[in-house]
Specification:
By secondary structure, the chain is of the alpha+beta class. The protein has ten helices and 20 strands. It has a seven-stranded antiparallel β-sheet, with helices on both faces. The protein has a five-stranded antiparallel β-sheet with strand order 6-3-4-5-10, with no helix packed on it. The chain has a three-stranded antiparallel β-sheet with strand order 2-12-11. Helix 3 packs across helix 10 and helix 7 packs across helix 10. It is globular, with a radius of gyration of 22 Å. The two termini are 38 Å apart. The protein binds FE2/S2 (inorganic) cluster and fe (ii) ion. FE2/S2 (inorganic) cluster binds next to loops.
Length: 378
């Protein structure tokens, strides 16, 4: 049975029965998990600096020689693809006296010359040129390349670890979830738009990505009309999660079962949540919403790098209108609905109204995310 068929079948069963996937019990999360700055710093270090995180999609540097820069949680990164097609991630800081080596956002070049004193590095990180070396004195090329971070690419996602010299087994980290991600065919999508959205604190923001319980009330004008509220099909692979929602047309799937014309993907929406910071929401109609969510310097803010993808580059006016409409709709749903609502949660965390939050049985993905943080932070 295909994944889409399995998910649509499970979603339909819930729809017919008025049910949803549930956790075995409710969960209490003390508010200090959201507000304690010492705890936040420890968790941010363990989860975002000493574990693999997703930093980009492969399609953002699709060709050998492509590069991209980003600042992730205050760490300037240079992400390159070498002539063998391998992706690298470096700290975008010169080894001479620390200037930012590459100031362009993205482009295509295999050498990077520091704007300060013109030391030059290859896109594999090697120091290949020292201006005026006869006066500077000899520089040991082998130890003075760009600081390289562990970086691996799977299923169209580039992963890195922000702590130099730390490395991971990416296949063990992703497990069978890699093939679920691979099925999303992310390599072949087209990048339409990238934007940054500031938001409330890390956990309050992530909670909103991990349940469908709020869809009818918060998204009444955007995604709400297209999906069945409070109906979630939920699976986990290690720390990673997949959530499927039923589209409003799910009723029409009744009786179709596994007939060849059934097209089960027509009746669901699927979100892949790569722990701890990537959400991939492929939407029917050839559009995809991707969010890289990073904690800020304190527990009170996040920054989301949001990507809008289309299945193919928009060619006609009609294609462009469709992807632009999708882009605006998701901006409204995430910035003006989700993030605006979560800002009210953030503002009132220290109001004294709650000393814990009660997470429902119908919010299993929220529960799972918080458990995984605890597991990693031990
Ligand atoms: S700081 Fe880069 S060459 Fe001096
Ligand atoms: Fe939402």
């Amino acid at each position: 049975m295909s994944d889409a068929l399995e998910l649509a079948t499970r979603a339909l069963k819930h729809f017919n029965g008025g049910t949803t996937d549930q956790a075995p019990s409710q969960m209490r999360i003390p508010l200090t998990a959201y507000t304690d700055e010492v705890r936040f710093q420890k968790e941010r270090q363990a989860v975002f600096f000493e574990s693999p995180i997703a930093i980009a999609l492969s399609l953002e540097i699709s060709e050998p020689g492509d590069f991209q820069t980003q600042t992730v949680m205050n760490v300037p990164l240079l992400i390159t693809r070498d002539t063998d097609g391998k992706a690298h991630c470096f700290i975008n800081v010169c080894r001479h006296r620390g200037a930012k080596v590459c100031t362009a956002e993205k482009g295509h070049q295999s050498r990077f010359t520091c704007p300060y004193h013109a030391w030059t590095y290859s896109n594999r990180g090697a120091l290949v040129g020292v201006y005026g070396e006869e006066t500077f004195g000899e520089v040991d090329r082998d130890t003075m390349g760009l600081t390289q971070l562990w970086c691996e690419e799977r299923a169209g996602v580039i992963f890195a670890c922000l702590t130099p010299a730390k490395s991971f087994d990416i296949d063990a980290w992703l497990g069978p979830f890699a093939s679920k991600l691979g099925d999303q065919d992310l390599l072949n999508w087209h990048l339409y738009e990238t934007r940054y959205l500031p938001g409330a604190g890390w956990k309050a923001t992530m909670d909103g990505y991990l349940e469908v319980y709020h869809h009818d009330s918060v998204h009444g004008k955007t995604v709400g009309p297209h999906t069945v509220g409070n109906l979630l099909v939920h699976d986990t692979w290690g720390a990673h999660q997949r959530m499927a929602f039923a589209r409003k047309n799910i009723n029409e799937f009744n009786g179709l079962g596994d007939s060849p014309e059934a097209q089960p993907e027509q009746y669901i929406r699927v979100i892949h949540s790569v722990f701890p910071n990537l959400s991939i929401s492929a939407i029917l109609g050839g559009h995809c919403l991707v969010g890289f969510i990073y904690p800020g310097e304190t527990s009170r803010e996040t920054l989301t790098r949001q990507l809008i993808l289309s299945a193919a580059p928009p060619e006609s006016e009609q294609d462009r209108d469709a992807v632009e409409t999708f882009s605006q709709m998701t901006l409204q749903a995430v910035r003006d609905e989700d993030y605006a609502l979560v800002a009210t949660v953030q503002q009132a965390l220290s109001s004294g109204a709650n000393d814990s939050f009660l997470i429902g049985r119908n919010e299993p993905a929220v529960q799972h995310y918080h458990r995984m943080i605890e597991q990693i932070c031990g």
